[in-house]
Write a structure and sequence with these properties.
homodimer; Rossmann fold; Arc Repressor Mutant, subunit A; alpha/beta; 2 domains
Chain lengths: ~210, ~210
């Protein structure tokens, strides 16, 4: 279990470091510096050094960071050096796109259950999976021990789905529905709402 | 043009306030308080009051905020009291899902151009749009005066697409490709990468 005292803002930057380092690794770059990494992702070198120092000593003074070593360390810190099963609720257009998104598997996230409440969708095939009846999800997800859920249903049913996921023991929810979710303490929610991101930019286009 | 001196972190919270207030409006709630709004989205009442005070006086002491008035004000501040045309590049699964996502239109974001470089996709229909040849996008987007782009191509072609969009005069890019983009100053990029969001939660699932 990770130290809860590290501010979430620090934790939230680690996946971006990991992503950039994985690209370096893929490009055959073996060592890097906080400066180079920072230039790549638009974060200051000082910030990167400070963030990483909260978790240990990963670089050698004047020698920079070993890319593959730092990738491994970050994967371990973020608990992504393993596979996570995911239950996806909502088998519409977005659910389809997500089920087909190969980057999830590449990063150890495997959508293994897909649910919907629409009788027209239950039993249909998405990739190698069959859409299951949402009425059974609490029992099935609990039995499978799945801890990560994704919500791709319309906004007006998202809270009800979140409640079910929590009941099933899910502790992390990626919510694509454009609505804020209320969940008990200890359950994490991240939001992917393109409207919010667009509006954060139109502010500057006035 | 908006005051660039307001910290981006403040700007970035405004769309979440707007979203919650729009839900209230939809539910027939006419007045609210920073406390109620804060409880809804998990931000402190003091933070909300402080953020809003940067843009003016929107509430009356002890009387709270008029929901529809505050919605209008936030829409104006965020420049979303108008329509924005969007050029979408990448007509694969994700591009399809986005082109069908009705919430964009509801919020004034209209995907009016869809591009791809795959001859198998060029000329195919997505909803009411025909996929156009990406080779023509710089001229066409510039001519149409489109300022907002979305990238839904694979990571290895995302930077090249971003360069073209910038050449075409696009000033705001919503990037779904899992890679950091380098753009000139004055161009805004927001990232939607589900892997990053999942990894921000698995940290806590150790």
């Amino acid at each position: 279990m990770n130290d809860r005292n590290i501010p979430h803002i620090v934790v939230s930057r680690l996946p971006r470091y990991l992503q950039a380092l994985e690209h370096m690794l893929h490009d055959g770059i073996h060592t890097t510096s906080s400066q180079e990494l920072g230039d790549m992702i638009g974060i200051s070198a000082a910030q990167i050094r400070k963030d990483l120092s909260q978790f240990g000593e990963f670089g050698k003074q004047g020698k920079g960071y070993g890319v593959s070593f730092l990738v491994e360390q970050l994967q371990q810190i973020l608990n992504v050096n393993r596979h996570w099963e995911i239950a996806l609720v909502g088998a519409g257009n977005l659910g389809h796109a997500i089920a087909h998104y190969q980057d999830f598997n590449k990063h150890g996230f495997n959508v293994t259950m897909i649910y919907d409440s629409d009788p027209a969708l239950i039993g249909t095939q998405i990739g190698s999976y069959v859409v299951q009846n949402a009425a059974n999800m609490v029992d099935e997800i609990r039995k499978a021990g799945i801890k990560v859920g994704m919500i791709t249903v319309p906004a007006n049913s998202a809270q009800a789905v979140a409640d079910e996921l929590v009941k099933a023991g899910v502790q992390a929810i990626l919510n694509y529905a454009p609505i804020n979710l209320n969940v008990p303490e200890g359950v994490r929610v991240q939001y992917i709402d393109p409207i919010i991101y667009l509006q954060r930019m139109t502010y500057y286009l006035g």
